[in-house]
Specification:
There is one protein chain. By secondary structure, the chain is mostly beta strands. The chain has 2 helices and 27 strands. Strands 11-12-13-14-27-23-22-17-20 form a 9-stranded antiparallel beta sheet, with no helix packed on it. The protein has a 5-stranded antiparallel beta sheet with strand order 1-2-3-4-5, with no helix packed on it. Strand 11 and strand 12 form a beta hairpin. The longest helix has 6 residues. It is globular, with a radius of gyration of 19 Å.
């Protein structure tokens, strides 16, 4: 059972207090704050026992309230993109903020990552709750969302989600942590190695909107059936590198059962990360839009490709693509999701 401690992290300009929860178990220490539902720190030992923070982050609450690249945050109501910021439910069209070129990204400019959540210790978990008002960021319905963070005895990070609504709405929650297994601020992740059982991905257009349908990874830059450095074929995928949905290989898996997305390893330190999820998709993003101007902990700049994300999800723009599993949530339904990040050394 994880040890959990709670403390005050700081205060927002309006005087509201932000709490920090520190979870410790199995060689992992994870810190979560109530602003944005953010995972602000996660430390792990390398093969020699040296401990480092392996998620990108900041030193101050002021920086976390800005956080232009979504470090560590809980993303909602809808992670990833909605084409042209438009969708319809039961014949009613809804228009959302266009905060990513011509499209809507990660719940909008003041999505869940910009909100103060209620936090408490719930047994061996940290429980965060946020009630999103009807039409907040353009989404219909009052949505009540709960996120639980916990650590297993082996030190794996478990993130669980639950949401209910009083009107039909959209939900697609995820966590947007950037990992660097050599240590945050140590450089780029181009030599990190990835292996994955995923055999399909979603081709996208220039705006990162799926073109429709899935494509085989075989013979493409997305074929990770054998271990390969992340940087080996990254620019063959896109000028900005990987920012694509991997279709989780759920063959033989039941609904609600975890399936492996990928294992990433860092050769110098030996640290490894495996991501498992109950979702059908996972966005592999390798920080192609970081540019060194984002200053993180201890004044270290985070360079292009300074971290990678594995963001579990239903497919991007699913509400506008008839062949994708829906992100629609109705009042008589309960949205649930679960993702696990397992850590080790090799």
């Amino acid at each position: 059972m994880a040890n959990i401690a709670v403390s005050t992290y700081g205060k927002l300009p309006d005087g509201q207090e932000v709490s920090q929860f520190t979870l410790t178990a199995g060689g992992t220490t994870a810190k979560v704050i109530t602003f944005g539902g953010n995972l602000i720190s996660l430390t792990r030992p390398d093969r020699a026992g040296n401990v480092a923070d392996i998620v990108l982050g900041y030193d101050t609450l002021e920086q976390w309230t800005e956080n232009p690249t979504f470090f560590g945050c809980t993303v909602g109501r809808v992670g990833n993109r909605i084409a042209h910021g438009k969708f319809s439910i039961d014949g009613t069209e809804y228009k959302l903020a266009l905060n990513n070129g011509d499209h809507h990204l990660h719940g909008g400019p003041t999505g869940f990552h910009k909100r103060l959540w209620a936090g408490e210790i719930d047994g061996d978990k940290v429980k965060l709750t946020y009630v999103s008002a009807d039409m907040e960021e353009g989404y219909p319905g009052e949505l009540t969302t709960t996120v639980w963070y916990s650590l297993t005895p082996e030190g794996a990070l478990v993130i669980e989600y639950r949401a209910t609504t009083d009107k039909p709405t959209l939900v697609n929650l995820t966590n947007h942590s950037y990992f660097n297994l050599a240590g945050a601020g140590s450089g780029d992740i181009m030599k990190h190695e990835i292996e994955s059982p995923c055999r399909a991905y979603l081709p996208v257009d220039a705006g990162c909107i799926p073109k429709g349908g899935v494509a085989s990874t075989e013979g493409t830059p997305f074929d990770f059936s054998k271990k390969v450095p992340l940087g080996a074929r990254m620019y063959d995928a896109d000028v900005n590198g990987y920012d694509h949905n991997l279709c989780v290989n759920r063959v033989g898996k039941k609904d609600g059962e975890l399936a492996l997305v990928a294992t990433v390893s860092e050769p110098t330190t030996g640290r490894t990360l495996s991501c498992l999820t109950v979702e059908p998709g996972c966005q592999l993003y390798c920080g192609g839009f970081l540019d060194g101007t984002n200053i993180g902990r201890e004044g270290k700049p985070y360079p292009r490709h300074g971290g990678f994300c594995l963001e579990s999800q239903k497919y991007p723009d699913a509400i506008n693509q008839k062949d994708f599993a829906t992100t629609l949530l109705k009042p008589d339904e309960v949205y649930t999701s679960k993702t696990v990040y397992e850590f080790g050394t090799c």
